[in-house]
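Exercise 4. Each item below gives a protein and its sequence. For each, produce the structure-token representation.

Item: Glutathione S-transferase (Rickenella mellea).
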Amino acid sequence: MAEQITLYTAKVCPYAHRAEIALAELGIEHTKYQIDLQNKPEWYAPKVNPASKVPAITYGGPIVPPDEPSPESEKIAESLVLLEFFADLKPDSTFLPKDAISRAKVRFFIDAISNKLSPAQNAFLRKGESPEALYKAFDYVQSLLPDNTKYAVSDNFTTADAAIAPFFARGGLALKNDFGAYKPGEGTKVLETLKSPKYAKLWGYWEAVLERPSVKSTLDEEYLINLYKHRYQALREEKQKAL
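Answer:
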């Protein structure tokens, strides 16, 4: 019998979304518990994750209510740690490649997300900075994509794809709806550029990732749109006042 898994997550968090995608992709049974990041339960940090962040899981131990985690269960946190942990629970899957070269490529691709795409996307959406850094990140990620595979490393959906999917999903929603601290109209302009021939390979990959059932089934677009509508409008107004 498989050990119990309780995932502590939050709909808004792209890092927590990574864990949800992995669990769905691998078909791992689990219990999901939403954490309000603006009003975290007092028990969460001392009993689940001392860093007080999501995602985190309890693994093993007795089956108990999520808000009463057992001291007998293992506590594991951080999205990239969890992606590989879940893959290890399903050793026959292709979610984490078996050969050393492919595993290295997966990790290198994830490094590009962490150090190139995510910071650039955040700077444009949340700070209203020039999109030039975002275009450079698009260029870099596109340069890493193979010519004849569906996903980041191969035709198999791997941890690399699960790692980037939440940023594609959230970035795409923000650009499509022109949500951001930038001037009105700049978001849709960036999206038009992303769909241009220059980024044909990247956009094809972007669409393939977002069409993956494990991504679609774990993404609450309506929730994010309603949240972003207010959050990014406030950031835009704040940005304009500072000019």
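Check: The two ends are 60 Å apart (CA to CA).
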